[in-house]
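On clarity, I found the account of how folds are encoded harder to follow than it need be. Since the whole study asks how a given chain folds, the encoding of that fold should be made plain. The format is easy to grasp once an entry is in front of the reader. For illustration, here is how one protein appears when written out as sequence plus structure tokens.
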Amino acid sequence: MSTFMAKKGETEQGWHLIDATDQVVGRLAVVIANILRGKHRPVYTPNQDTGEFVIVVNVDKIKFTGKKWQQKSYQSYSHYPGGLKTRTAEQLRQKHPERILEAAVRRMVPRNRLGRKQMEKLKMYKGADHPHQAQEPKKLELDL
């Protein structure tokens, strides 16, 4: 008996729709990362992209627990002297709410070519509508 290893292009890639309204960022990021990586499927292979596409709507309505909106910070560095920018989660939510969830998911996928390819399958939108109706995404109910 041998172990099954999926080959490139061998697995079907479906689409999932997730509503992020009142979902906690970390718990939602775990679910999204597992779907992007394909760990929810029996054909999961660590070195192949066996994951599926994920559409997240209402990203602006996610929540943190505790005082993380004021205490959690996000940093970006331009590699120039004095180029370190630090923003709180509250400031980031006002301008780019999708970056909060994207940063959480990015840290949960592999940090290599495969991880970057998997992150391309994540589509996030502020409102309730999205341009992917033609792909017929399956609505995913979360009990978090």
Q: What stands out?
A: Residues 25-37 form the longest helix (13 residues).
